[in-house]
Amino acid sequence: MIDHRHHFDEQAAQWDKDPKKIERARRTAQLIVDTVQPQGNERVFEFGAGTGLVSQTLAPHVGTLTLADNSHGMREVITQKISAGTLIDAHLSHSDLVGGKLPEEKYDIVVASLVLHHVADVPALMAAFSSILVPGGVACIIELDDAGGKFHAHIDHYDGHDGFKRDSFEQSLLGAGFTEVQFHDAGKIEREDGEYSLFLANALTSKNG
């Protein structure tokens, strides 16, 4: 993974004080609920969970939540929320999907919200998502549409991805073992330098395993 963890360590304590981040997470989770239509007993794994804002909104609609993040600061906030009961039926995972340390459990839903553009080898991570899902499971990936280099232009020496083209993103998911991909518009990030559109890709695994 492209190592931006120190940036997120520094932001973790203040992350939930930004109403735009809270609202974006709420809308993201609601879109996942609307498009996946969970039954209430699903095992969910959120990769790059940050402070767990998306999982907080998902919690009433699913079964158990497993959260993973490589930022120490974010993990501390998640732990505090679990202890306080803010995150219900949740626990913190110390797996490392990018480093090849996969959880032993299998999940019905994998969620990754605005994480993949920080990852160097995106197809390998997609394959890891596929491998930890049960047959018929779904990976719900929220990402930036291709921003033509503009979204991260303010960050010196940014070495991640500046969004993704949906057609090539779909081909990467199919190449990683998923059998079907459904795209949904997921709103926009509004900044002083413009608006940046988001998508939700629901990637389904084969029901036959």
Automatic annotation (TrEMBL):
InterPro entries: SAM-dependent_MTases_sf. The keyword Nucleus does not apply. Coiled coil: none annotated. SUPFAM superfamilies: S-adenosyl-L-methionine-dependent methyltransferases. The keyword Cell wall biogenesis/degradation does not apply. Transmembrane segments: none annotated. GO terms for biological process: methylation. Pfam families: Methyltransf_23. Keywords: Methyltransferase, Transferase. One of its GO terms (molecular function) is methyltransferase activity. CDD domains: AdoMet_MTases. Residues 1-20 are annotated as: Disordered. This is Methyltransferase type 11. It comes from Corynebacterium casei LMG S-19264.
